[in-house]
Specification:
Blueprint (H helix, E strand, L loop, with lengths): L9 E6 L16 H18 L6 E4 L9 H10 L4 E8 L8 E6 L4 H18 L3 E7 L2 H6 L5 E8 L3 H6 L3 H21 L1
Parallel strand pairs: 1-2, 1-3, 3-6, 4-5
Antiparallel strand pairs: 4-6
The chain binds zinc ion.
């Protein structure tokens, strides 16, 4: 798997929430904002250690701070991102489980292909239930879609004890980060 020609592809990973906005609170007391930051940083690390920085990856935040949604999408624009991937964890009142990926309502074909690639890699390799690619008018998707393919990944439910606990283990953080990285690479190599 390698991108032989041209410049490095620019990937913007957006760990959702941060600072005073904790996002969903897990049944085990963990915060969505911390889980998504850990996974984002693990993607950054794997790009370096595993594929020799083949991708140019930037995070919208590197620490526990709250960044506005429009600043997140502005970063994708100013970096001329090739893909934008926002990371979130889900929550529900019933016993929902699994991973789902959101693409903007405009149903941009490249974004759907990116979403399918990321979803397949993470569900097939890690055993998460596949909830599918869905469409929504989320602000980060709406504001990035005119610049680059963009997706928002809901990577498991903080309200499921199994899935919230999954993210407690560093090796699981690394595994899901690897699945996302491969999903992104596969999309960039075929798209
Ligand atoms: Zn969220």
């Amino acid at each position: 798997m390698c991108l032989v020609f041209g410049q490095k592809k620019v990937v913007v990973i957006d760990p959702g929430h941060g600072g005073i906005d904790s996002g969903a609170v897990g049944v085990n007391g963990t915060y969505e904002k911390d889980v998504v930051l850990k996974v984002a940083k693990a993607i950054l690390k794997l790009n370096n250690s595993l594929i020799d920085n083949e991708l140019d990856i930037y995070l919208t935040r590197y620490t526990d701070t709250l960044i506005s949604l429009s600043d997140r999408s502005r970063l994708a624009k100013s970096l001329k991102a090739d893909v934008f991937v926002s990371l979130h964890c889900n929550a529900s009142r019933n016993n929902s489980r699994g991973i789902e990926v959101y693409v903007h309502n405009s149903k941009n074909k490249k974004s759907i292909a990116l979403g399918v690639s990321v979803l397949n890699e993470s569900t097939q390799k890690l055993g998460f239930e596949k909830r599918g690619v869905k469409f929504a008018n989320f602000q980060v998707l709406r504001e990035t879609i005119s610049y680059c393919p963009s997706v928002l990944v809901e990577m498991g439910f903080m309200t499921s004890i199994d899935e919230a606990d999954y993210f407690l283990k560093p090796k699981n953080i690394k595994a899901i980060a690897l699945a996302f990285l491969i999903g992104i690479m596969d999309y960039l190599n075929t798209g």
